[in-house]
Fold this sequence. Notes:
By secondary structure, this protein is mainly alpha-helical. The protein contains 6 helices and 3 strands; from the N terminus they run E-H-H-E-E-H-H-H-H. A 3-stranded antiparallel beta sheet has the order 1-3-2. Strand 2 and strand 3 form a beta hairpin.
Amino acid sequence: MTYSIGEIAEKLGVTTSTLRYYDKEGLMPYVDRNDAGVRVFKDSDIPWLNVIGCLKKAGLPIKDIKNYIEMAYQGDETIDARLQLFVTQREAIKKQIEELENTLAVLDYKCWYYETAKANGTTDGMENAQVPDEHKSAWKRVHE
Length: 144
């Protein structure tokens, strides 16, 4: 089956301008064009586009995504380099997740703090409030 740029954009949940940008940056060398020069997407293009989207969401710069695609086209001699790219990006995402979890814990603590203060009608005395166990590590991050 073939798709227009609008159809594939809708299918993937991206904009047509995003796809045009990817093409302009050389991220879609596999996409065919018809005689009029219009992009024609195939089902086999979807996995590539999904990986590009994933790498973009993972914070990989366009130049590195392009490098990955070029390595994939070079074949098996680039397996190690491609693996390292994904391992490195996975570690970066794990670190971001950890940082976000810490941020969420502080936000949860502050929600508890203000919900308790609201119930008491004041923030006075909150420094002496018994902090629930699930918020103690966040309390330490805020107060130490």
